[in-house]
């Protein structure tokens, strides 16, 4: 049993093995050993010249610590670990809380990846930076969809370990708020602040200070450009923060890659490469959409970008060659937005045909959050000149009183509305009666003129003007009345 051993300035809390061909450990317990500054809380086994073998069976590693370095229980370099029927639990380190290995992937790890545990228990170990149970070379780059910010509406999908973005515009900025680097257990790296790194071992500092993330675009296509904060080694808020403005052409696709620093290769005990030396990368496919309303196409070097109209200008047609100046009738313009001043009206958000509400300027309220279709409550239609009688827009019925130019809610003003409608009814009836009488008089005159013309007494032609006809008609009437009086006198004399 190896218990409560402390190595204050060297390697391995209980055992230090260097350039050893093979070591067998059976039926042993390593409990609460500590390596205060260097690697390997219980065992540190380092080979440089040739492959070493560490065969462990029927053993326990519990509560060991490499407080400032790697390998809470076991730290290996160029050593194959054969592990059977053993327990590695509750050990701690900065990297690789249970086991940390370099250069060689141990046989038991390859078997474990295939679901063969060999009656081993490796659990509840802890690492501050990465590799809680097993630590080694970092394995992949990951970013959650919620940590990607794009202003326009878009879709993001993971497909076969690559990211695909639909609906982005050429020249639009993408913000990657938290790019994470994952270990072999698919847990993200945590890099402490500069102040907290002062006490870490040199081995740990060498590992974490090499970690960086960058964005690489297609450098062979001169039409593809990427600008922004494209590289960072600064870890914040759980990841790396990068911004990029990819530029190509609308309705085309391009590929960019998020890459890490170079990591060393890993081989198995038979010298077969299991992990190639190189950069980790996450491929991002960008499918550019056409420019949207409120944007104009603009040549930017060899690329074509979609540029949004700035404040004070607008565009409502994707074919516009340049943004238009905000009209005097608008309070504010930007992109496709035109915020009208009160007193003005337009039929919809996609037209700049703006009309002054001369009928009643007070009811055109485009600046009010309570308005609908630029109209105040109860008003609808062109320049808000009508009341919502059927409640199609405002849910309640509204009606107008005579000459008031005001719409009143019917349910709140029922008596006034009834009186108003009755008054309108009688006015309409009176108007109809007047028109009927007028038509009767006109018809009587036309009929009388017709029979006068037929009698041949007086000729009424189409070429006569109206005053002449009227004068002749008066003469004819006087003649008729004169004849009637003569006939009456003759009749009386005969009596």
From TrEMBL:
It comes from Tetrahymena thermophila (strain SB210). Keywords: Membrane, Transmembrane, Transmembrane helix. This is Transmembrane protein, putative. The chain crosses the membrane at residues 414-436. The lineage of its organism: Eukaryota, Sar, Alveolata, Ciliophora, Intramacronucleata.
């Amino acid at each position: 049993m190896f218990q409560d051993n402390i190595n204050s300035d060297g390697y391995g809390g209980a055992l230090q093995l260097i350039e050893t061909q093979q070591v067998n450990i059976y039926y042993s317990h390593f409990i609460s050993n500590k390596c205060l500054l260097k690697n390997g809380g219980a065992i540190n086994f380092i080979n440089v010249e040739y492959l070493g073998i560490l065969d462990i069976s029927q053993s326990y590693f519990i509560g060991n610590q490499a407080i400032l370095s790697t390998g809470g229980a076991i730290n290996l370099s160029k050593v194959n670990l054969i592990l059977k029927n053993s327990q590695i639990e509750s050990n701690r380190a900065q990297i690789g809380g249970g086991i940390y290995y370099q250069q060689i992937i141990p046989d038991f790890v390859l078997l474990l990846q295939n679901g063969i545990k060999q009656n081993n228990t490796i659990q509840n170990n802890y690492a501050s930076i990465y590799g809680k149970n097993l630590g080694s070379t970092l394995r992949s780059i990951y970013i959650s969809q919620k940590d990607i910010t794009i202003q326009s509406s878009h879709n993001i999908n993971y497909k076969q370990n690559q990211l695909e973005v639909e609906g982005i515009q050429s020249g639009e900025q993408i913000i990657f708020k938290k790019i994470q680097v994952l270990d072999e257990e698919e847990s993200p790296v945590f890099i402490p602040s500069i102040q907290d790194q002062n006490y870490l071992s040199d081995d740990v500092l060498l590992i974490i200070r090499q970690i960086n993330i960058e964005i690489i675009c297609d450098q062979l296509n001169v039409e593809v450009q990427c600008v922004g904060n494209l590289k960072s080694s600064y870890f914040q808020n759980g990841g790396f923060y990068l911004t990029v403005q990819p530029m190509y052409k609308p309705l085309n696709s391009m590929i960019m890659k998020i890459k890490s620093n170079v990591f060393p290769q890993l081989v198995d005990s038979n010298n077969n490469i299991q992990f190639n030396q190189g950069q980790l990368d996450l491929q991002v496919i960008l499918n550019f959409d056409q420019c949207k309303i409120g944007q104009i196409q603009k040549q930017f070097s060899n690329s074509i970008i979609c540029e949004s109209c700035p404040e004070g200008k607008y565009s409502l047609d994707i074919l516009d060659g340049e943004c238009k100046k905000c009209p005097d009738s608008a309070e504010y313009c930007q992109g496709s937005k035109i915020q009208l001043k009160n007193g003005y009206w337009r039929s919809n958000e996609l037209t700049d045909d703006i009309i002054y509400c001369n009928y009643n300027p007070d009811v055109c309220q485009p600046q009010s959050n309570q308005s609908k279709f630029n109209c105040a409550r109860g008003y609808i239609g062109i320049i808000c000149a009508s009341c919502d009688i059927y409640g199609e827009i405002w849910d309640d019925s509204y009606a107008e009183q005579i000459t008031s130019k005001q719409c009143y809610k019917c349910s709140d003003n029922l008596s006034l509305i009834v009186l108003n409608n009755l008054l309108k009814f009688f006015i309409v009836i009176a108007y109809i009666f007047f028109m009927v009488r007028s038509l009767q008089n006109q018809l009587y005159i036309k009929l009388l003129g017709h029979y006068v013309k037929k009698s041949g007494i007086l000729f009424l032609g189409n070429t006569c003007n109206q005053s002449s006809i009227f004068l002749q008609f008066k003469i004819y009437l006087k003649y008729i009345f004169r004849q009637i009086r003569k006939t009456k006198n003759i009749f009386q004399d005969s009596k």
